Amino acid sequence: METRTSMPVSVPEVVSTLPGPWQQRQLAEVNDAVVRVARFHGEFPWHYHDEDELFLCWDGTFRIELEGREPVSMNAGDVFVVPRGMRHRPVADEPAHALMVERPETKQFGN
């Protein structure tokens, strides 16, 4: 997928192509970051990143479990930033989709 383009990218169209839980696609590059969309369903493994990670709940609901803190509940339209170095995992009881803003080199399963 072309990520630097003058044409709009349809998030619903990209979401419809995600084959299963925890699959993601890159939507765009902006400055030194990438915007990705992912399908959440079930429990993702605990992990951390060396940089902050922004989550925008696109549809459905999910929670972000944080080591040593109360989980953060996410509903469509909610934004939350997981601070760098914090162990976390998204958990979705039903399918949900989220946009994430990360560095291009960020690994899905963390560092």
Automatic annotation (TrEMBL):
InterPro entries linked to this entry: Cupin_2 (IPR013096), PKS_Associated_Protein (IPR052044), RmlC-like_jellyroll (IPR014710), RmlC_Cupin_sf (IPR011051)
A Gene Ontology molecular function term of the record: dioxygenase activity
Keyword Oxidoreductase belongs to the record: yes
A Pfam family hit: Cupin_2
Cupin type-2 domain residues: 42-101
Keywords: Dioxygenase, Oxidoreductase
Matches recorded under PANTHER family: 16.7 KDA PROTEIN IN WHIE LOCUS (PTHR36114:SF1)
Protein name: Quercetin dioxygenase-like cupin family protein
Organism: Nonomuraea dietziae
Classification of source organism: Bacteria, Bacillati, Actinomycetota, Actinomycetes, Streptosporangiales
